[in-house]
Amino acid sequence: MKELLSGNEAIARGAYEYGVRLASAYPGTPSTEILEYIGERYPEIKAGWAPNEKVAVEVASGAAYGGSRAIAVMKHVGLNVAADPFMTLTYTGVNGGFVIVVCDDPGMHSSQNEQDTRNYAKFARVPCLEPSDSQEAKDMMGEALKISEDFDTPVLLRSSTRVSHSMSLVELGARIEGPRELGLKKDILKCVMLPAFARLRHPIIEQRLKDLAKYAETCSFNKIIPGDDSLGIISAGVAFQYAREVVPEASFLKLGMVWPLPEQLIRSFAAKVKRLVVIEDLDPFIEEAIRLMGIQVEGKELTGLCGELSPEKVEEALKGSSSAKSIGAIDMELPPRPPNMCPGCPHRATFTALKKNKVYVAGDIGCYTLGAAPPLSMLDNCLCMGAGIGIAAGLDRSLGDLAKGKAVAVIGDSTFFHSGMTPLLDLAYNGGSTTVIIMDNRTTAMTGAQPNPGTGYTLREEPTGMVDIEKLAGAFGFRRVKTLNPYKVKEFEQAVKEELEAPEPSVIIARAPCALLKTERILPDRPLRIREDVCIGCKACINTGCPALEFVKIDQPAEGDKRKGFSRINEALCVGCRVCMEVCKSDAIEEAS
Questions:
Q1: Comparing 554 with 73, which gets the higher pLDDT?
Q2: Are 19 and 98 contacting, i.e. CB atoms less than 8 angstroms apart?
Q3: How many whole angstroms separate alpha carbon 113 and alpha carbon 279?
Q4: Which domains does the chain have, with CATH numbers?
Q5: Distance of CA 12 to CAs 1, 142, 355, 521, Å?
Q6: Is the distance from CB of 511 to CB of 485 less than 8 angstroms?
Q7: Residue 325 backbone dihedrals phi, psi, to 5 degrees
Q8: How far apart are the C-alpha atoms of 486 and 346, rounded to whole Å?
Q9: 457 pairs with which residues across the strands?
Q10: Helices (H) then strands (E): counts for the chain
Q11: Do 166 and 245 touch, CB atoms closer than 8 A?
Q12: How far does Cα 95 stand from its chain's mean position?
């Protein structure tokens, strides 16, 4: 039976069909749906969200040590977080098959960088497979698990945004169980990485890489597709699909195993074609490896290093121009639609209060990163998950009076559980006067409202323990901990002012659920309206950035009316959060009748 599946659905299906017993992940686009699909459709797999990617890899590796087939899932920047256990797992090896699924994001549709996961495969000396469609995404899960068991190694399965979210037909199969015997097995020399034991493992790793290179020569996912020998293209993943679409007549070496590379297969292919070109997203990973073989090849000088490839870009690279506009494309300028926080978002209320205090805000990854956009313009720094607290503390400690009372850190609840607890502990330990605002909206909102350790339920909506952030901060040693309703902007503004003036570090928990959550609501859901005759046109409400608010210009004011315009509320969007009412200078806002 065949079914139309996205790449992420197919990866989840592959985990089911090939006997995965445990899956652990942290949500992050474009990888999020993989674990969600497993949770919804495949109860045979023990699946759960981990606090971060490092923990996901550690939990999944524990399952593999016990003989289970297991996967950990994350986006590309998540592998940075998981790098510590990952880099040593290559030394200990695994027992049951262990695959780390990593989804790259060329073009940075929802990411802070464009890093290429294939470099981690080379760095860690582990094999890496890369599917080009949904069928391969499912099939490569089975192959990756088999390689993992046969070569005693973790395996990277690298997807990308287009493969993860595009759909194609997939042949479905029945579930099979893994071949390893389940149980606890002691092997201290292999699994305890003391320096003396690790030194014994390193030569084994290098020999394994040589054996994997031999395997790559016959891997069924590496194949030559013969064609016109005037042009030979080496490609992998979705870039192969683009190149095949643009020049179907060319000869192709399609790589499904992108590390280690099949050197003899590449040499054989290169010898058969007059012109050799590598088409690949992101880094010149394959291109540079081929150059090191002494083979003349073209690549990134044609396609460029930055941004995501597309059929149009590949056509222009290979032919000098693109025919896209000549086949019916509409040439028109679309109005800009920048991302914005939702109507009623509690983060908007928090930033509005912070703006009144004119502070420098060290931020983090989440919906609240949008606080950097005008008219709020209240996020001054965003580096990576969990960094905001440490950055604010570093500013405070190094600048002294120059930063005192002028800098805060903001972090969401899911990001706090992911990697904010450690820098908060550092702040408690090393002191200073930094104020940390934990924006607790009771979900992992940015990636689709996944649960986290502060929500009280799991991936499969089973009740579980709920972290008490107030008690946690107290246990760390903070004496100043406040929990506030961010919608009460004036109270919140005053509380922030008090904590900024305090001589010691403090924590403010801005607690209000995501405006999109249906299970926990504190908003009245009654829209507001603005009395246009009372509004003075000061734009205080407009400056909150709420998409339900608009400013109407007065082209021909009545006699005596000095206003340039007035504010208006779109009642279809308004959820009645009352932030605009809190900042209104003329008492012009009331409940709509």
A1: 73
A2: no
A3: 21
A4: 2-218 (3.40.50.970), 223-322 (3.40.50.920), 346-511 (3.40.50.970), 528-591 (3.30.70)
A5: 17, 11, 44, 32
A6: yes
A7: -75, -20
A8: 6
A9: 463
A10: 21, 22
A11: no
A12: 29
Structure tokens at 124: 């860690």
Instruction: Please report where in the chains the tokens 């590949």 appear, as a residue.
Output: 314
User: What is the secondary structure of 152-213 as a DSSP string?
Assistant: TS-EEEEEEHHHHH-EEEEE-------SSPPS----HHHH---HHHHHHHHHHHHHHHHHHH
Question: Mapping DSSP to helix (H, G, I), strand (E, B) and coil, where does residue 98 land?
Answer: strand
* Closest of 352, 93, 76 to residue 208, by C-alpha: 93
Interval 29-46 mean pLDDT: 96
Count of beta carbons in the 10 Å neighbourhood of residue 305: 11
Please report where in the chains the tokens 């990952």 appear, as a residue: 86
CA nearest to 259, candidates 151, 113, 107: 151
pLDDT in the model for residue 321: 77
The residues that bridge with 135 in the sheet, in sequence order, are none
Eight-state DSSP code of residue 564: S
DSSP string, 51-85: SSHHHHHHHHHHHHHTT-EEEEEEEHHHHHHHHHH
Helix (H, G, I), strand (E, B) or coil at 390: helix
- Residues with Cβ < 8 Å from 376, sequence gap 6 or more? 348, 351, 352, 355, 543, 544, 545
Amino acid type, 251: S
User: What Cα–Cα distance (Å) separates residue 423 from each residue in 85, 179, 471, 513?
Assistant: 20, 42, 17, 24
What is the overall mean pLDDT for the chain?
A: 93
Q: What is the dihedral of CA 216, 227, 137, 151, to 10 degrees?
A: -10
CA distance 441 to 422: 20
What mean pLDDT do residues 298-315 have?
93
Read off the pLDDT of residues 486-522 as tens digits, 9 standing for 90 and up.
Answer: 999 999 999 999 999 999 999 999 999 998 886 666 6
CA distances to 192, 290, 458, 478 from 37, in Å: 35, 38, 14, 40
With tokens 């597309």, the residue in question is: 310
DSSP 457: B
Distance CA 282, CA 149 (A): 30
pLDDT at 591: 87
Q: How far is CA 223 from CA 100, 122, 234, 257, in A?
A: 24, 21, 10, 10
All residues at 6 or more sequence positions from 229 whose CB lies less than 8 Å from its CB, including other chains: 251, 272, 273, 274
| CA terminus-to-terminus distance, the chain | 56
List residues bridging with 20 in a β-sheet.
69
User: What whole-number distance in Å separates Cα of residue 567 and Cα of residue 542?
Assistant: 7
Q: Which residue from 400, 378, 354 is spatially nearest to 492, judged by alpha carbons?
A: 354
Separation in Å, CA 119 to CA 125, 260, 285, 409: 10, 11, 7, 33
